[in-house]
Amino acid sequence: MRPLRPRWHFRLLFVLGCSLLAAWASHSRVFWQQDVASYDLLTGDWEYPPDPRLAIIAIDDRSLQQLGQWPWPRSTHARLLDKLHQAGAERVALDLMLPEADRNDPAQDAALAAAISRNGRVVLPVLAAPPSDEAVPEELLPVPVIAKAAASLAHSDIEIDADGVARGLYLKAGIGSPHWLALGAALAGVQEPLPGSTNPGASTRSPYQWHRDNYVRLRYAGPPGSFPQLSYVDVLEGRVPASLLQGRLLIVGMTANGIAPRLLTPTSRDSWMSGSEYQANVASMLLAGNAITTLPAGAQILISALLVAFAAFGITSRFRWRWLLGVLAIPVPLLLSLGLLHGANLWFAPVSATMGFAAMMVIWTLWQMRYWRRQANRDTLTGLANRMRFEETLRRENDAARRSGRPLTLLLIDVDHFKACNDTYGHQVGDRLLRHLGRTIEEVARRPRDLAARFGGDEFALILPDTPPAGAEQLVQALISQVRQLSIPVDKAHHSKIKTSVTIGLCTVLPGLEDGPARLFEAADTALYQAKQAGRDGYRVAPPWPN
């Protein structure tokens, strides 16, 4: 027997159902944790040489020990900026929040502003923070005198995923509209247009909320420590040669334990990365053109659905190795994701499609198992129950009739002169005759518990639970009449047809405690023999059993 190939509408329903399941999973982000795990797997070791111009001036533990308790006077930062300017640094991101004026010594703000102005290439951070839990966020800018001196302001908002890992960022953000570049982007000096997915709801933005745009996945140059770090105190005190600072893109930020922000990244699950190195990675990624963009939600859903649809079409086809095709299709979404990632810096979340493939295989396997179970109890020529199922059903219905005290009817049906038909017209016509008879007999078994079966070459049977003798005789008469009206095609070229008839043995009983299905079958078979002896094309009713 061939494995079942479903009719086109069942096949279409299966394909559509599997693809819609994958589309729903993709839209709902059901497997987001598995997707980010796949992303970490594919990008965790995907290193590249960082831009050699980038370096971090670290406010580290040694600097704190030598320069004293934090925060330091702003004139200290002014001295550092002058050192960097004299050394010929190309651009400096001073990753320090300066939202309030120095109340003890206003000259400190003026000194820092003057140094920033002299340098001319200093980027300062902006952060959104609500003044209280219930208030709308506000932009925390440097004090006006310092902000005015800066070459540019940039947001330092770091995007953290729900599992605590920093995988991406928004290149633009701001209150009311995303107007600030990310700090690393400003340090790199990138210009519009920026990479990344944009927010389609820009026209309906609230003027009081922090909005973000141009989302990209951050491709890290490597694990923590991939960028050179110079101690703040060494630069300040002239222990770093000017040649090491000339032409550099520098980030001045916290790295000291207990003070610096600590981030987990796909490259640093076992160690922390500082916010300054995070920004260095942003700048290096943009300078190298390595920003990873995510597929739009619609494209993500469509690709997931189409992958599963193609696989479902394949597994329901006549292809000999379709099971192997289904198994090999499971890693396809991951391979596609890998190809898009390394070939086009595009991220496709693969797990919804992968799970769609797995669900498709499970559903198809269960459906095929159900089919094989049905085939084990089905006659392959007529589609009726075979002898094994007939005997099981007769035994079960005999026990049910004995318990309920309701009648059970058995019909044994023999095709008249079937051997002569085979000898005259051939087995192909004989098979056609049996199929037509099988459909006619099956139409009689309308109730759920009725069973039509073929248990021999030209022998059929009908099990009719809860059927009294009068009703059984009416059914037999109708069946004989319908068979007489059949016209079985013999030769399509000459439109010739043959007629046929059946002989039936009928027995209706109320089984007693000692009565088994064998007795019922024997009685019906005896009635069938008597009907044949009487000339065929008719029926006989077995006499009632003695009590």
Automatic annotation (TrEMBL):
Annotated InterPro entries: CHASE2 (IPR007890), Diguanylate_Cyclase (IPR050469), GGDEF_dom (IPR000160), Nucleotide_cyclase (IPR029787), Rev_trsase/Diguanyl_cyclase (IPR043128)
GO biological process terms, semicolon-separated: cell adhesion involved in single-species biofilm formation; negative regulation of bacterial-type flagellum-dependent cell motility
Record-annotated membrane-spanning stretches: 297-316, 323-341, 347-367
EC number: 2.7.7.65
UniProtKB keywords: Membrane, Transmembrane, Transmembrane helix
Signal peptide span: none
GO cellular component: plasma membrane
Protein name stated in the entry: diguanylate cyclase
